[in-house]
Write a structure and sequence with these properties.
The complex is a heterodimer of chains A (289) and B (494).
Chain A lengths: L14 E6 L2 E4 L5 H20 L18 H25 L2 H6 L1 H18 L1 H4 L23 H10 L24 H14 L6 H14 L1 H4 L25 H10 L14 H12 L6
Antiparallel strand pairs in A: 1-2
Chain B lengths: L2 H10 L29 H19 L16 E4 L4 E4 L2 E3 L5 H21 L2 H6 L1 H17 L2 H9 L4 H27 L4 H9 L5 H21 L1 H7 L2 H4 L10 E4 L1 H4 L9 H6 L10 H4 L20 H13 L6 E4 L1 H8 L11 H22 L4 E7 L6 E2 L5 E11 L5 E8 L5 E4 L4 E2 L4 E4 L3 E11 L8 E10 L5 E9 L4
Helix pairs in contact in B: 2-5, 3-17, 5-7, 5-9, 7-9
Classes of the chains: A mainly alpha (289), B alpha+beta (494).
Amino acid sequence: MAGNPRKDEISGVDTTGHEWDGIEELNNPLPRWWLWVLYVSIIWSVIYWIFMPAWPGISDYTRGTLGYSQRNEVQMELAEVKASRAGLDEKILTSSLEDITSDTSLNQYALAAGKAAFGDNCSGCHGSGAQGAKGYPNLNDDHWLWGGSLDDIHYTITYGIRSTHDDTRFNDMTAFLTDEMLEKDEISDVAEYVLSLSGTSSDVEAVSRGESIFVDNCVACHDEGGIGNRELGAPNLSDKLWLFGGDKKTVVQSISYGRKGVMPTWETRLDPVTIKALSIYIHSLGGGE
Amino acid sequence: MSTKLEQIVREATIEVEAVNKKENRPLYQKRVPIFPKRAVGEFRRLKWLIMITTLSIYYLVPFIRWDRGPGAPDQAVLIDFPANRFYFFFIELWPQEVYYITGILIVAALALFFFTTLFGRVWCGYTCPQTVWTDLFIAVERWIEGDRNARIKLHRAKWSIEKVWKYTLKHTLWILIGVATGGAWVFYFADAPTLFVDLFTLQADMTAYVFVGMFTGTTYVLGGLSREQVCIYMCPWPRIQAAMMDEDSLQVTYRTDRGEPRGHARKAPDDLDKKVVGDCIDCKQCVVVCPMGIDIRDGSQLECINCALCIDACNGIMDKMGTPRGLIGYDTDANLARRIQGKPEKFHLLRMRTIMYAMSIVAVCGFMVYLLANRSPLDLNVLRDRNPIFVQLSDGSIRNGYTIKILNKHRNQRQFEITVTGLKFNELKVNDIKSVGPAPVIDVKGDSLRSVHLFLSVDESTLKSSSEPIAIIITDIESGLSVSNESVFLGPDK
């Protein structure tokens, strides 16, 4: 490949002596403008080292005379954002939930804030679209265990359900098999009755046997006809929606061992403005009352 | 042969070679400065006129006012980025209608093809901003440093007080022109009179200064320093134009049949009368006026922008020589051939390609006017909720959610009624307005977009498949105008 540089006859320029399959390379100088850009870049980089953070050391780095830091920039920008929102946040803090939703611009702000907060804090269990999963309620629908008004939702988020907070929403679905209150046959019958409330049972005899057991054991919380009681957080058993599942096996399991789902309290983890925004966002998903 | 004529020839003749002579164009060449001589004549006058007209349009249009009523900008031509609007006299466009700009660009391209086919590179020669500004910059240079010979002398001279102040003044004026160019540009994007004051009082937005700076730089570099290099090396148009032109296209042509063989009249004064030599006296006036540094007598070249200044230069000489004008003039290749064959000249303006281009222009313009005349003052976008796809309610019914964006292009607030067809809906609920009814009514402010969330629910039994087509219709209560948008209603698998 390497050879002796020679003068190219056609262009009158020296070659580099490199040759590939008869193709030789001319030794033209770099374009002047290109060279100048290189020189300017070199000078610029030296200036940059003086003013800006540049060279890494063992445990630290050269910080530059301007004291620039991207971390500081982010902190400052975040502070700016926070400051720019201070007015709105203050308004949300001092207004009632009803008042916020009737103020269009404030409502828009709360919805946006709520959506972001939901993604960060709630979607882990309730899903990114609040669609829920087995044991985790779908927040889009119109079925609420503890009520779907703005204030009810706000209370639930703040204090949680069966959480560690003193004011938590709390109830206890009895584990009828574990606690030896009902036999397996009785549980099967009452499950058939529960299924009949939403029209999904086919065993008429079991239903009639189960009805009396239901009256004796369940109506205290679930009310007559299984329509539920929001004061106690007792679910409506007569509608089409099931938190844990509406097949017989699951219903039997619920009656036998009880259900003790937990929603944590967010009072200590989120600021009041965020909780209010979350309440308004969840209320807007379609099921709000 | 009179001695007077001899003298004219002697005085006119310059021993010079074109800077960009066809024969010696290497692949790479360091720029050799060109010092175009002042041309005098009808084409030069026409070019001054076009320069004044185009620059006036560019500088003055932002200051034209156009009343659009209260709350709307009163600038005739305005690209309002913060408000997402484009105003052009009576036309107001939303970002969704950017295809009108596409239409304008298509018409502009077709017009460029059309005129190139007929008259060659008239765009390059007269109206291209690069040509106009370069012309202006050369005029400034000539005003300060003098005509060609004085400029060459100054260029070659060692640095002196005179050279320094003249060059300083020239570059200062160029930069000022650049500032004015960039300054006018930003006026198209904000209220011009306000911005004009703000720019000078340093109150204007940083963006405005950045753009003024950018355009100052590009104008100075392209118009002052690069000049013909832009046309020769940067611009794609000289390379494309050959496809538009044919043997009947007019272009600036040296009529070889008449000019050749070139004769130094003073060397053969008797031959001049006998027509042994052609009319070209080889005075090279056409070369020295050329801003591209070429010799037009080499024939049609990529470098030639058809500015016609060589026509003026040559005509001046022809007048003095007493020979007819037009040794260099607008001519076609076909005519050149016809004259050589002894046939009369013929100009074909109606040719297949000119007709096709003209028809295309009319068709596109017609289509645009039709679209504009039938532009709906109302638009609707529907976005289906995808997460969750659908929601089952406690009574077993199925609910879908839709984000509806209503675009009210009227200047006043309107009310729109929402109706949905395709299924028998239990409920039509618009969350944001807290109204439940068969047809919710939404207020939308003038010249704005409102986004609302619509919930539709149906009994599951009415769903025949997991995806049912529906149509969401909004109706302007005032005018009765309605717009429909198709979507689907999704449910569980069947």
